Amino acid sequence: MTPIPETVPPTEVRMAEIVFPNHTNHLGTLFGGQALAWMDKAAFLAAARYSRRTVVTARSDQVDFKLPIRIGQMVETIGRIVEVGRSSMKVEVELVAEDLHSGERKLCTRGHFVMIALDEEGHPIAVPPLPAA
User: Fold this and answer.
1) If you average pLDDT over every residue of the chain, what do you get?
2) Membrane-spanning regions, if any (predicted)?
């Protein structure tokens, strides 16, 4: 099998989850803490995949909960690298809820996370510049 050449580091990850009752509050909607955990995981994966380094969360900025996400909906969590510093990566993360019966999709939550790449000793290390669009 011929390997697929990779010339540009990947800048996006997508994850899918189903909202079960143990993910929700008394109103049957996704707990904010669970949403943040999924978002942080996507930010981690996007930054680690892009930098090919160990990364840690340095900050989460302005997480906007626009619409509730309900039991039984599929949630697609999309993390995209949108800005790169010396060792930091800003990751935009969106939660898109999908009704599995109708196919209707809605952007429910959006936030930004700053991730830092670390070397083997746990010190910040430079990451590649973001490719021009």
Assistant:
1) 94
2) none
